[in-house]
Design the sequence.
């Protein structure tokens, strides 16, 4: 069967930005773009903005092409129900019937899963996890998400919410999460937001000279911390060392849970490279039982930052039965 005329839309809804792509069966993203998620307090306004962005492109490629459907990766996305439920990083509260709203607006089938699960599927099909049956994908961005694949199957759990490793408690009684109200979760330390919080705490606890002290609290972000770490700023370097320590300790727990072949790190935070990877690997290995040591590959995603989730989300479409 000639499938070259078929395209799927993959949508990755993040806490800050939403990225989309038109994808063919070979996993080639033929068109892509993005829009702000956090600019839309109401989900219907967001869907309208996405429609206004996508529909002209759908019309443009429509000559000889068929849009088979849309796949969505979203925080707290429930594959079984097609809903986004109580996502702490989104403005939209409660339970959002996202696939129904999208189908009603666009007029074609829509499926949804957790954003990190979508990234894991994309990595398994087209990236560093090709050929692997057991791996964990950790997404490090505005939040910390995860997708767990065991025995070749994405772990969804009985209710569709398995794999919230970013909300596991890694520092009991630790930082208060800004969205969940829980304390000590991995996300409060290893997300982009967590990195900034660590930098601020270190500045308060130390009198050491740092260029970070000259940056206004409102404008300080993880990118600036990274840039100063590259320049050798002591507080910035310690921020990434500590972030890697916390992440490595958490990953050791995850390894002893599912014994993956690899853990793949994905998202904007990994741009820090060895500043993050070296302490992460050191503290992961140091906290493993001997039977797990030096067995698990710890690698960065091979896909472009936006592509893994887009590709994974779009792959859902090919599962829609005619």
Sequence:
């Amino acid at each position: 069967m000639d499938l070259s005329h078929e395209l799927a839309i993959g949508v990755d809804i993040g806490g800050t930005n939403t990225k989309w792509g038109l994808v063919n069966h070979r996993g080639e993203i033929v068109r892509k773009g993005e829009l702000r998620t956090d600019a839309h307090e109401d989900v219907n306004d967001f869907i309208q903005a996405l429609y206004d962005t996508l529909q002209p492109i759908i019309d443009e490629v429509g000559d000889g092409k068929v849009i088979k459907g849309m796949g969505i990766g979203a925080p707290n996305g429930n594959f079984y129900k097609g809903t986004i439920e109580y996502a702490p990083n989104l403005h939209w509260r409660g339970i959002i019937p996202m696939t129904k709203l999208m189908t009603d607006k666009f007029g074609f089938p829509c499926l949804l899963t957790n954003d990190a699960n979508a990234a894991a599927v994309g990595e398994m099909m087209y990236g560093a996890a090709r050929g692997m049956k057991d791996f964990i994908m950790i997404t490090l961005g505005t939040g910390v998400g995860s997708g767990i694949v065991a025995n070749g199957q994405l772990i969804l759990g009985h209710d569709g919410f398995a794999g919230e490793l970013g909300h596991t408690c890694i520092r009991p009684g630790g930082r208060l999460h800004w969205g969940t109200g829980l304390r000590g979760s991995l996300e409060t330390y290893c997300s982009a937001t967590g990195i900034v919080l660590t930098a601020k705490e270190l500045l308060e606890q130390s009198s050491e000279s740092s260029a970070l002290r000259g940056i206004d609290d409102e404008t300080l972000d993880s990118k600036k911390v990274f840039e100063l770490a590259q320049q050798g700023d002591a507080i910035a370097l310690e921020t990434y060392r500590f972030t890697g320590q916390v992440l490595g300790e958490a990953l050791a727990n995850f390894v002893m849970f599912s014994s993956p072949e690899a853990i793949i790190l994905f998202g904007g935070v990994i741009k820090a490279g060895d500043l993050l990877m070296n302490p992460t690997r050191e503290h992961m290995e140091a906290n493993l039982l001997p039977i797990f040591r030096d067995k698990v590959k710890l690698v960065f995603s091979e896909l472009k930052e936006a592509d893994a989730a887009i590709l994974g989300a779009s792959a859902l479409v090919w599962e829609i039965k005619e």
Remarks:
- The chain has nine helices and 13 strands.
